[in-house]
Amino acid sequence: MNLEERNQDNKALLGFKGSMDLFMGAIYVAVSVFVWKFPSAMDQFGKVPVGAFSILFGLYGVFRIYRGWSSIRVMMNKRKQ
Hints:
By secondary structure, this protein is an all-alpha fold.
């Protein structure tokens, strides 16, 4: 069994990666919401660039949350088997 196969079967690693994806996704979404709630950054750097990065951060955060949720769900299904 090589290192890659061992890491794919490691449930603790899958759980950690899934939890980390959930946490980082929440941070990305929080940064996106923070920029819209407190528009001082928009005043300083311009509304269009800050708004575009904020939308990208929010979308990437939602993607990370989805990826973490699906990883944890796969881990739970493996645990039941």
